[in-house]
Amino acid sequence: MGRRFGLISCLLGGMAVSQMACQKEHRNRLGKEKSPYLLQHKDNPVWWYAWNEEAFSAAKKENKPIFLSVGYSTCHWCHVMERESFEDQQVADVLNKDFISIKVDREERPDVDKIYMDAVMATRGQGGWPMSVFLTPDLKPFFGGTYFPKTQFLALLNQIQKGWQDQRDQIEQTGEALTQHLKAAEIKGKGLDKVSEAMLIAAFHIKKSTFDEQYGGFGHQPKFPPSTALMLLLRIAKRTGNQKALEMVTRTLDRMAQGGIYDHVGGGFARYSTDEAWLVPHFEKMLYDNALLSMIYLEAYQATQKPMYLEIAKETLDYVVRDMMRGEGGFYSAEDADSEGQEGKFYVWSHEELKQWLTEAEFKKFIAVYGVTSAGNFEHKANILHLSQDADWQTKKDPLIQTAHQKLFKAREKRVHPHKDDKILTAWNGLMIASMAKGYQLSGDQKYFEAAQSSAAFIQKHLFQNNRLLRRYRDGEAKFSANLDDYAFYVQGLLMLYEADFNPQWLTWARETQKIQDELLWDEQGGYFFTSSDDPTLIRRSKDYHDGAKPNSNGVSALNLLKLHDYTFEASYLEKAKKTLFSAASELAQYPEGFGQMQIALDYYLDRSKEIAVIGHPEDPQTKKILAYLRETFLPNKVIAFSTPQEARQIPLTDKKTMQKGKTTVYVCENNICQWPTHDLEVVQKQVSEFKKYALK
């Protein structure tokens, strides 16, 4: 029945072709794609195209508007709209008759997603996924939204189709006007000719005014983990000594770890909390969230020496190594919120289940620590585990809780697991490489270093082609030109890897990757474009400095450039970093909120940033002691290079530096001017602790 109606729709569309030709001309084309999200839709009765020239040509040839649907494979509301509309023959018939329908995985094509999400935000004031946008055949948006229930969606399709027939000129004028607005919004001014700590002070005061004193975080529900903002506040606390800045960090980290957003049984964090207390999560787990959160917990451990923070970071990294890592290297992208058609089913527990799996003593202790009740705190009387008011992190170390965790983890492993999006994204892997390398530096756990190393090597082997970086690998296929996120986050990961084992190979790869980024994406006005100029399907080339769910990649690039300069003393790195910061300066001055990563780079630039060279032998006890101190201490505005005397010339920072009197020797430098070399750890501590302070007025 469905095929017959689909064929009628094809013929009613005005095509003068035979039935067989019609069936060949129109079909769902997603079966040959590699994206898990697109493959989820390959059996829909909708005649989906991927984002490609075939789809654009069909729209022009048939004179039809484009329906663009953008989402990702672990998106709960994407699944809902698929079940309600895209699996429904009535909806499919309308789409097939009157539209060319295109599916886009926003994680594969953030360039496409960004353009049309900006269009939705400009016209609707808010956005989200699934994103539903209507375009002219030349790809100009004229109407958009997010999730639409079936009845509303059918009514909208009919309205769009009628408008296309009766008011085509007006629709095309709307598309042209909106496109020009999108282009104009991305034309950056000349910036400012100076930057200052005042930009950091303003950001602090805004964060302070929106801080949730009870639960941590900023604003109200829903609450997303503010990783980048917390990293900035740690740096502000470091240079000002302001306890409020540090308190905002520690309270937020404490409350998140105590809440249901943290997976107390298996480690790792969910995407966000639907409530202000971090209790009820949206259960999907994203690789980039867990990379950023493990990093801020590691930095907070450096700053406070609070063991809880290192333990949380390790449990998160353990989760990634266990569940999110490809055998030969590379980290998977995400795990779904849903399993067996229910959100959170994999993660929650009923009172009766816990009784079944635990001894009486374990059960009694467990329900006291995790606030479990027979009524539950979630749907169907289920319990989301969270630490009760009378418990703290230390309580989890009780032997009864430890054995209960082990039993529940084994029991949970037997459940139907959520869908895993197993594509490898260069950008997200770059973030996790950095966190794994940092985790190794602080914990000494070799598996973290091996995970980071194998991921970096995997990208180098599979995602570099024709001297360009690619974005996505899955099922043997590397595809899609890398964007700024991919280059910036990968370079960041390589720089962190260098400080994990001091193998010059990582610095060489970082410099080579940075060179390609500069050639493809650099804007002579300052900063980097998000995409290269050679994709004609993109109606706008954007450049921005604002953080999103991930740190802004211009901010990451500015910090990468500053660090590369301090390793190599090549002036071009510093000049590009300065031009990037100055091009963003007017926005930082006018709108301090939301530019955390740019402000982190600014903090490095304005500080007395340290170039630390250590010359010695890796097995020497004094070498180990000095390197341990430099790694364990929160020194965000520094680079560290280590070399033996025989290999010192491989890195400009260590070149011409030698061991004095046959002992491990440390050179603490600023702007390539070094203090007197020393063997004494106490002297090293004094030298590296000198930084440029400022007051929070």
Keyphrases for this structure?
five-stranded mixed beta sheet; alpha+beta; 4 domains; four-stranded antiparallel beta sheet; Glycosyltransferase; Glutaredoxin; disordered N terminus; 697 residues
Largest sheet: 5 strands, mixed
In total, how many domains does the architecture comprise? 4
CATH architecture of the largest domain: Alpha/alpha barrel
Q: Classify the helix fraction into a percent range.
A: 40-55%
Low-confidence stretches: 1-24
**Structural class from helices and strands?**
alpha+beta
Average pLDDT figure: 93
The beta-strand count equals 20
**What oligomeric assembly is this protein in?**
single chain
User: Kindly, what is the distance between the CA atoms of the first and last residues, rounded to a whole number of angstroms?
Assistant: 72 Å
Share in β-strands: 5-15%
Order of the strands making up the biggest sheet: 1-3-2-4-5
Count of helical regions = 26
Radius of gyration: 27 Å
Morphology call: globular
- CATH fold-type name of the largest domain: Glycosyltransferase
Q: What is the CATH class name of the largest domain?
A: Mainly Alpha
